[in-house]
Design a protein that fits this description.
This protein has 334 residues and is of the alpha/beta class. Helices cover 35% and strands 22% of the residues. It has 11 helices and 15 strands. α1 crosses α9 and α10 crosses α11. It starts with a strand and ends in a 10-residue tail after the last helix.
């Protein structure tokens, strides 16, 4: 029995080395990643008991993926085996003024063929406190969307807190399709993570005027009122270079909003930073942090992830707490 259960697709990640393009790369580095798996790994890294639910083929790649997840401390006992292939994404890292690019090869993946009735949610969720999913999983197929609904209904019936990250991906579905599928499921969600554009385009919040300090709290408050969310967290980044970004976040809960400090980041690998943010937020909320401390910890977790190669973050709670407190990496720890 795990404290947190995350549900989604984990994929094979193939990345071009040395900032090369796919057209010129002589080789590809192999790893695994995926939004909900990334969050599960982050939670396990922080010492939480985290389980991951998905479906992987019964072949060497499926075995390797499960072994890697287990090696990061994630419970994979609820991962189904079957289907013919694992989904793949190719990553060309950005540098300077050249943005990064992701190409998917995930059609007919084992995970995309999941459907209602395949997971015994009562057994998987027994004894858990928290269930996490994202819009990416619902985008994979009509069967996956229906399975998301089935999972949320079971989680609420069993008294779990349900968190959701919009995670809109233009290459997977249209904004109209995402809105039509996701909005009816929001009644099950307690904690919502969304970017400002996702809140407007997918979850139906009208645009709010003003600067960031005005818009984000107003958007989060409207989201909570429209969909009944207990907590809304929003991230905001800015930067004209793939090699450098600024990152901060905001939380709205209990009628009050709080911003994190703004982090100035030199980017090693930004993929998975949002998932690490969500993992950090879940950890902070589970330990009972007040708004200000929770959002500082979550934002620092995301900032730290930008400096780690691969989808899966490293870094202890103690290290993240130092960064959350405003002490960065200017000096070598000796």
């Amino acid at each position: 029995m795990s404290e947190i259960v995350c549900f989604g697709e984990v994929m094979l990640r193939l990345i071009t080395p040395h900032f090369s393009t796919l057209a010129d790369a002589p080789s590809l580095d192999l790893a695994f990643g995926g939004a909900e798996a990334n969050a599960a790994v982050q939670l396990a890294q922080f010492g939480r008991s985290a389980a991951f639910v998905s479906r992987l083929p019964e072949n060497g790649l499926g075995d390797r993926c499960i072994a890697d997840l287990r090696g990061r401390g994630v419970d994979t006992g609820a991962v189904l085996r079957g289907g013919s292939r694992i989904g793949v994404y190719f990553l060309e890292p950005g540098v300077g003024q050249r943005p990064g690019r992701v190409s998917y090869d995930r059609q007919n993946s084992a995970a995309s063929e999941m459907r209602p009735g395949m997971v015994d949610w009562d057994a998987v969720l027994a004894g858990a406190k928290w269930f996490h999913w994202s819009g990416i999983t619902a985008a994979l197929s009509a069967g996956c969307a229906a399975l998301c609904a089935e999972a949320c209904e079971a989680a609420k019936r069993l008294g779990l807190t349900v968190s959701f990250d919009v995670n809109y991906r233009l290459k997977l579905w249209s904004r109209e399709a995402a809105a039509a599928t996701l909005r009816p499921l929001m009644r099950h969600v307690d904690v919502c993570v969304a970017g400002e554009s996702d809140a407007v385009d997918i979850l139906g919040v009208p645009p709010h005027p003003g600067d960031e300090e005005q818009r984000l709290p107003a958007t989060a408050r409207t989201l909570a009122e429209m969909h009944g969310f207990r907590t809304v967290a929003m991230t905001c980044r800015a930067g004209d270079s793939a090699s450098h970004t600024t990152f901060r976040a905001m939380i709205h809960s209990g009628g009050a909003s709080s911003f994190s400090r703004r982090h100035e980041i030199t980017v090693v690998d930004r993929v998975g930073a949002g998932d690490s943010f969500t993992g950090g937020l879940i950890h902070a909320l589970l330990r009972g942090d007040e708004n200000a401390r929770a959002i500082e910890f979550a934002a620092a977790t995301a900032a730290w992830k930008h400096t780690i190669y691969g989808d899966w973050n490293r870094g202890s709670v103690a290290e993240i707490e130092v960064l959350a407190g405003g002490t960065g990496g200017g000096r070598i720890g000796r």
